[in-house]
Amino acid sequence: MIDLPVIQPETAAPARPRKPDWLRVKLPVGEEYAAVRRLVDEHKLHTICESGNCPNMGECWGAGTATFMILGNICTRSCSFCAVATGRPTEYDLDEPRRVAEAIALMKVKHAVITSVNRDELKDRGASVWRETVVLTKQLSPGTTIETLIPDVKANWDALDVMISGGQEVISHNIETVGSLYRMVRPQARYDRSLEQIRRTKLAGHRTKSGIMLGLGEKADELYQAMDDLVANGLDILTLGQYLQPTKRHLDVAEFITPDQFAHYKEEGLRRGLKYVESGPLVRSSYHAERHVNVPI
Question: Per the database record, which ranges form the Radical SAM core domain (predicted)?
């Protein structure tokens, strides 16, 4: 009798959580979507809808709206959740504010959201382009309300003052996650610095907004602490959405949060003093942004 060697089974890698049905979205179609697609291409505009692989692009573009990304499409940061390209930016177009403002006017947008990549290599973080984009948009489309989703200015408070002085109705800065996960999720940012940026924006008299992604491994009590920290620093509006891995090079999803959990977190945020909470699996920063203009400050 021959003794055969015992082959030990390989240890299987932990299974990734399967994307639930509530996160499935329809492909973008329709005449309105095609019209926005043409305008974005013709004016050589960048949108976070595309660069960020937003799951709501079909719904929002189908309604004739889009979130514009200024200052190029290469970011100086390397956040581990974000699909925007990282590197040394080559684009700094002083004519971009005019092109964005004209596109918004052509699209007859009632509420525009404007965001940007981080431009840490610029002394003013791109603040002058930020302000000019808002000012020109208001001149060409005086009936259009504007939300600006601004990046971390790395404590350059003079740059912040310029960014928020264009006349926009809502100023948003996303903290993205809870404090304990910052080193993993936002390695070049600081939790306390983002809170300080929100605090200074509120002290300047503006309507403030921020967003957090869920499903990165945060605990409920950490989320509640973040809500308390945001309220203490003057936040008015909070968005909560499910983190979705943009590519295999990015952070894995630790957990898929159920719609019932999102509903619970919304109630908890309101109970803790937030004035408005947009909470759901597919919620992103600019989702239903037009509703946030009327939140009292």
Answer: 61-275
